Amino acid sequence: MPETEEQRKAREKMEREAAEQTRATELAQQKQAKPGEEESTRVLELDDDKGPEQEESFALKIYKEWLKKYKENNPDFKENENKIVRDPDGTNLLCFKDPLAEEDFVRQLAKNAPGGKIFDKGIPIASFDNGELIDLRTKKPFPEGGYAHLVSQLDSGVAYDKTTIKSPDVSAMMSPPSPSHSMTVSKTSLPEIPSTKLSEKEKESDLTQNESDQVKLTN
């Protein structure tokens, strides 16, 4: 029975993912065989960005743009310890020692790349989808700091299936109200109390009335 179109697409997808996994595993093994190479090296695979014949990869172009802006805000940033390398086979390698910088870069890459995945020791840990950096454990976008939290664990030797997931930061939602939102009581919020002062005419009238009453009493 010939396979249907859906079956063919599913088979091709499985074959493609298997090939990517095999390639990532081979690269991870090669890395382990080379002493002195950064332990935090991760493999970056982008759609339409493969092959050593390209003069400069799309990822390297984005990295240069990102680096210029990042160093403006972080003058002490160590570029030589946080970089992207393209090997002779045309594979992009993320070599970052600063997990927060790595997250900042891959988020920028996700916004510009048509698609792709990040592998650690042959295991896919993140993907790019519609400008979002996706956590493949949850199939949802990483919360702020979530990617850095993951790679920090991986670099310290924690197995991928033993890593913990960072919860979204809700501290901003619980921040105290700003002074401009403080409660105030307007001057018109309280009812006005009628004045008890008598006018001059009222005083004269009361005085005349008192004198008249006294005359009546004496008579």
Explain this structure to me?
- Residues 21-30, 168-186 have a biased composition (Low complexity).
- Residues 1-20, 34-53 have a biased composition (Basic and acidic residues).
- Residues 207-219 have a biased composition (Polar residues).
- By secondary structure, the protein is of the alpha+beta class.
- It has one domain.
- 40% of the residues lie in helices and 16% in strands.
- The chain contains 5 helices and 7 strands.
- It has helices at residues 5-32, 58-73, 99-112, 146-155, 200-218; strands at 41-46, 82-86, 92-96, 116-120, 123-129, 132-135, 140-141.
- A 7-stranded antiparallel sheet has the order 2-3-1-4-5-6-7, sandwiched between helices.
- Strand 5 (123-129) and strand 6 (132-135) form a beta hairpin.
- Helix 3 (99-112) packs across helix 4 (146-155).
- The longest helix has 28 residues, at 5-32.
- The radius of gyration is 37 Å and the shape is globular.
- The N and C termini lie far apart (136 Å).
- The model is unreliable at 31-39 and 171-191 (pLDDT under 50).
Topology, pairings included?
Layout lengths: L4 H28 L8 E6 L11 H16 L8 E5 L5 E5 L2 H14 L3 E5 L2 E7 L2 E4 L4 E2 L4 H10 L44 H19 L1
Helix pairs in contact: 2-3, 3-4
The domain tally reads: 1
Number of strands: 7
Q: Major beta sheet, specifics?
A: 7 strands, antiparallel
Unreliable stretches covering 5 or more consecutive residues: 31-39, 171-191
Order of helices and strands: HEHEEHEEEEHH
Helix content: 25-40%
Strand content: 15-25%
Q: What is the CA-CA span between the terminal residues? A: 136 Å
What kind of oligomer do you see? Answer: single chain
Q: Quickly give the structural class.
A: alpha+beta
Task: Kindly report the spatial arrangement of strands forming the biggest sheet.
Answer: 2-3-1-4-5-6-7
**What is the typical, i.e. mean, pLDDT?**
77
Radius of gyration: 37 Å
Mass-distribution shape:
globular
- Count of alpha/pi helices: 5
